Structures
1.
Amino acid sequence: MKWVTRKGVKFDRTACAWAIKRFIDPEAEFGFLSGDEMPAAIEAGAKPFHNYAWTGNPADVPADRINFPKLLELYGLDSDPSLVKFGELVKKAEKSGWAKDGSEQYSLFAIANGISKMVNGDDGAITERLMPIYDALYAFCKDLVKGDPGWMSDAG
């Protein structure tokens, strides 16, 4: 299936692409289109994966502009506590990137921005390179949900 979103993906929509590829449509192909190109692509059968396309009304986009929780809800994936935790981290990372406040999720924002710079903003390349990062983050979330905090610091 062809999935489409607006050009200029960042952390949230690349996480959506990861969830689509890993849990919804393993054969997914992604298109990163201008806003003007979106309606024709959807009419031709492409599946949108962000709020502008779901509703057709930019006013319906949540104030925090985070799409991942809605994607989980729409595809019945919100019953997986590890994916919900993943979504919380995605939201915090996206928001910490805006705030630039040094919160722990800023490193995720920094990784995504570094990848974007490495590939000159190519949406497809950004999404592809973030896939293993999200695989690792999801594995971490699975352990967190089970009460395993991961590595313990020797620094105490």
Note: Residues 2-145 form one domain.
2.
Amino acid sequence: MRRSLGVSPAGALCVLAIASLSVVLAACGGSSSSSGSSASTAQGTTSASTSTGAATTSGSGGTTATPACATSGLAVRVGANGSGAAGSVYYPMTFTNQSGHACTLYGYPGVSGVNASGSQLGSPAGRDATSSPQTVTLAGGAVASATLQITDVANFTSSTCVPTHAAGLRVYVPNQTASQVVAFSFQACAKAGPVYLHVSPVSLSSSTAPPNSGGTTTTAACTTSGVVIRVGTNGSGTAGSVYYPMSFTNQSGHACTLYGYPGVSAVNASGSQLGSAASRDTISAPATVILANGAAASATLQINDVGNFTSSTCVPTHAAGLRVYVPNQTASKVVTFSFDACSKAGPVYLHVSAVT
């Protein structure tokens, strides 16, 4: 006769304990898997927010990033008077932050010529890679700048370019899809192909941020009205050219900065331009010059002997003065200066260095 197996009270307790432990282990395993999935999702969200430059939401543990400047929050302007060099004219572009908060710009503006109806003319601007892009943080009211180079369309064959009149420029703020049209009259190519526009990356302009804007106040750029311009009458000659000193004295009553090249062209007694504007002598790189009130910066003007050019190409004439633009300013002053010039555009007989 078989004896049935009994379970003692202690044995029953052991079985229950083992079963309970299995349930706990299973529960812990499920919790670990769920927790790992949740952490992965949160990390992915944070990464996406960082890559788009969006501000991190409060409580996420991240640092709030400065948003990119939107087209609607910027005032875009193009200076009406540029400085000429070797078949091109360089115009200053400014981007003023009017959004009411700080924002950032990085890279190149998009620029193209347009007709009166807003239709694009020819190819958009190429990128001038002379300087590298850098992130520019603009406080409210602060200004970033870029340089627009417009090549004389006469450099291209008529059939390739199909010259026409442009009524404006369509400008895209860097990394934005909305645009603004700025009224600007110039000769453009109607046919795509020749790249007659080139634009530099945006950089911080030397303008003063308004009080309580949250930005760093910088020394303002020298304006034409606050600078006295002189050209030395006695130059030093070499190899068919004469070099004359130019001075820019700050009489604004406060410190200001100069950066880059003056715009220079010869004029007759009535103030009309004679021939091509001065090209840029790039032997020395531009550097920011901070002028205390009463201090002076200098540049060198090279005037080529017009006898170096054929008479039909140059059409020699007498110049009564020089029209001078302070670097990055659209107003000019005429300085009395008598010399022989070319009346016909083409030969570049004037060259100017950066201010130092």
Note: The mean pLDDT is 80.
3.
Amino acid sequence: MSRKPKLDHRLLAMLRKGAKPAKPVKAKAAPLGPTPERVKKGDIVDGEHRVGTGERWKGARVVSTSPLDRYRRGGAITDIQDRSGKRLAADWKAGAGAAALIGSYGERESTASGEMTDTAAERHHAYVMAMQALGPELSPVIVHVVLLDGSASGWAEARGRRGTGAKVEGMVTLRLALDRLARHYGLTSRGAPDTR
């Protein structure tokens, strides 16, 4: 004995009359946007943005993914500290420091023999001098936060600190390191670069 599936009586009546069943109405999916937490954190700006030459686009855009930018927007570091960290990162990247970690699909800056260009060598030298100015006690936090995009608390946790102690120690050490970088680069109002 075979079992026949039971049809809905209304659908069966419609099929007998020759009427086509109504197509189900698809609900429009709400456009995906940033989470309120990301907007509150300041990483994403929601609203109208300029794209290209005069065109406008409504939606969200990522402001930054750099820890230094987040700390700057949150008031954890000063503008001078932010600039000193970005200058070190620029020297490191231009001095071919980033090439050791990340392969580039762009044009390489090297001579035919594979050596660094003069500009890359100068930027590498500037990076080395800045790291020497930081010394062995402050350079690890700079490498972790500025060059590898880690958090200050993550650096402290890697050293064994936990909880609030990690946040406090990480930020205090980062601020001290950025202040020393600012003195080295001559960005502070106190004058001459730090030659330690």
Note: Residues 34-63 form one domain.
